[in-house]
Automatic annotation (TrEMBL):
Upper taxonomic lineage: Bacteria, Bacillati, Actinomycetota, Actinomycetes, Mycobacteriales
Gene Ontology terms for molecular function: 3-oxoacyl-[acyl-carrier-protein] reductase (NADPH) activity
Protein's UniProt name: 3-oxoacyl-ACP reductase FabG
InterPro entries referenced in this protein's UniProt entry, alphabetically: KR_dom (IPR057326), NAD(P)-bd_dom_sf (IPR036291), Sc_DH/Rdtase_CS (IPR020904), SDR_fam (IPR002347)
Name of one Pfam family that matches: adh_short_C2
Entry EC number(s): 1.1.1.100
Keyword Nucleus among record annotations: no
Ketoreductase domain residues: 7-186
Length: 242
């Protein structure tokens, strides 16, 4: 039997990159999926199946995130898995970063993950089951120059994950996080070649990761294979910054 047969998942930021790979993997493993993205048409086109519902979602708005769960409950009858993946970057040195650049990144990553975690947990605790997977980043572990906003947000996601896991464990709801390293995606391949090469030199496995490799770990955390794991953060980095 497929690992997610009969389950319903919600995934944010699923029109491309890691989010799209996670949604695709969950579908392959038997789940029905509600995807939330600022570009729902792109997500729907990439995931062309009647097992998907695509909804426009700005994760900084609680009502938008709530609409994702309403769709899952109405269309598919439940919410078993939540993946908080939506994100943006506004990289700059502290001297050049604007307050708006800082606020936007914190709001999308950290506040967006908080909305998704708390609203999913409200549903899951009533069901007495559920798995929440939050996408952090290696930047949240080590801090990256030019990313004070992003590193702070991604570190915050780890703390949020641990605190939420403690609150809802007694309801059989698990909350875990993933910290990807350099993963080949539209966001990372847009960086200057010099920066890309510098990051590659830090990876013991001597290659960038693929979105599907993060999706495989998300599948593990979403499924019963990780049934006794909560509050953990799994690194998918090729050994970078061990």
């Amino acid at each position: 039997m497929a690992l997610l047969e009969g389950r319903v998942a919600v995934v944010t930021g699923a029109a491309q990159g890691i989010g799209l790979a996670i949604a695709t993997t969950f579908l392959r493993e038997g789940a029905r999926v509600v995807v939330g993205d600022l570009n729902p048409d792109a997500a729907a086109a990439a995931l062309d199946t009647d097992k998907v519902r695509a909804v426009r979602c700005d994760v900084t708005r609680a009502e938008d995130v709530s609409a994702l769960f309403d769709t899952a409950l109405t269309e598919f009858g439940g919410v078993d898995i939540m993946v908080n993946n939506a994100g943006i970057t506004r990289d700059a040195s502290m001297r050049k970063m604007t307050e708006d650049d800082f606020d936007q990144v914190i709001s999308v990553h950290l506040k967006g993950t908080w909305h998704g975690t708390r609203l999913a947990a409200d549903i899951m605790r009533e069901q007495n089951r559920g798995s929440i997977v939050n996408i952090s980043s290696l930047s949240g572990k080590v801090g990256m120059a030019g990313q004070t906003n992003y590193s702070a947000a991604k570190a915050g996601i780890v703390g949020l994950t641990k605190a939420a896991a403690k609150e809802v464990a007694r309801f059989n709801v698990r909350v875990n996080a993933i910290q990807p390293g350099l993963i080949r995606s539209p966001m990372t391949t847009a960086m200057p070649e010099k920066v890309w090469d510098q990051k590659m030199a830090e990876i013991p496995m001597s290659r960038a990761g693929e979105p599907e490799e993060v999706a495989g770990v998300a599948l593990f955390l979403a499924s019963d294979l990780s049934s006794y794991m909560t509050g953990t953060t799994l690194e998918v980095t090729g050994g970078r910054f061990m």
